[in-house]
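Fold this sequence, please.
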Amino acid sequence: MKHLSVTVKYALFAGLATGINIAVQRGVGQIARGPLSLYIAILSGTTAGLIVKYLLDKRFIFFYRPPSRSDEALKVLLYLMMSGFATAVFWAVELSFNALFDFTAARYLGAAVGLALGYSLKYELDKRFVFSQHTGHEATAKIEDRRSQICKPKPHLSLPR
């Protein structure tokens, strides 16, 4: 895993999460009945893919090790917020394919296309806002550390005579 580029790892993880998402959707779609069954299937698949993707991204893409539970909670919250943008893209494409084409496989093709677009957006959002050096408690600690270095009293120097 160490020798693969970030792009390759991210694509592999996105593919794995996409496969899990679609498999869960399909499984739930086999069981769920009623007017909301499509949305229950989509939500279930999205949740399953999101959990897997967060765990893989955190460990192998951004190499994040939470220093505390509160920092982990903040990262999860930020990750979920960024996922909302990507999920909106994904769902819009999937539901568009479902509405435009009258066969079940079109919805799954729409899901794959939507997930590819969504994950591309998601990587940039995560890199900039979730796992950047300027988010969470570690950023606060770095700022405080830098402030203490700047404000540290300097030893009084005397020139030799």
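The chain is about 80% helix and 0% strand. Residues 136-140 have pLDDT under 50 and may be disordered.
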